[in-house]
Design a protein that fits this description.
Structural class: alpha+beta
Number of strands: 7
Number of helices: 6
Order of helices and strands: EHHHEEHEHEHEE
Strand order of the largest sheet: 1-2-3-4-5-7-6
Strand content: 15-25%
Distance between the termini: 25 Å
Helix content: 40-55%
Largest sheet: 7 strands, mixed
Amino acid sequence: MGGVGPRPRVATEADLPAIAEALSRAFERDPVWGWGFEDADPERKRAALRAIFGFCAEAALGYGWVRITAGAEAVALWIPPGEEEMPPAAAERVPELIEEWCGPLSAPRVSALMAAFERTHPTGPPHFYLSLLATHPDRAGHGFGMGLLAACLEQIDCAGAPAYLESSNPVNVRRYERLGFRPLREVELVPGIGGTQMWREPSGAAA
């Protein structure tokens, strides 16, 4: 965790612009989300990702589990056990948000991806769900993202709960494995596009 410096903190509304920027920049070249915006202009794609991920972060703030590094280099959106990814009122606004920001070409693809993530999410034991983890590309390579994740997992271990994530980029699987996550299965979200579902038991628990 050498690159992280001070302990990560709970994000507030004042952090939302920085969170949206970090997430949009980090995911604009992601294999899965790249498919969602395959035919989009790069600036429109970034603006849409900023709007969608910023909305997801805002919806998750009330759970108290959006974590951010001191300088907003990295951000983690966690959904605690027993909670929906976003409250019902916020979820109802998602289709309109997608239509507004994604345009006629990308909106159906983005909607299909979001529905697929929800459809394939495990229903198994209550767990913390890492819905989004990102490091701003300008600060990548200094341990901010993995340091943030490790700090979050320390707190989750104290709660004695498992953790779950979907890796939409194969290069990240080994990084998550180093922190105790294990692949559950490969899922096809839409034809030809998929990801790796990963599960982590709390530290010290039986495998």
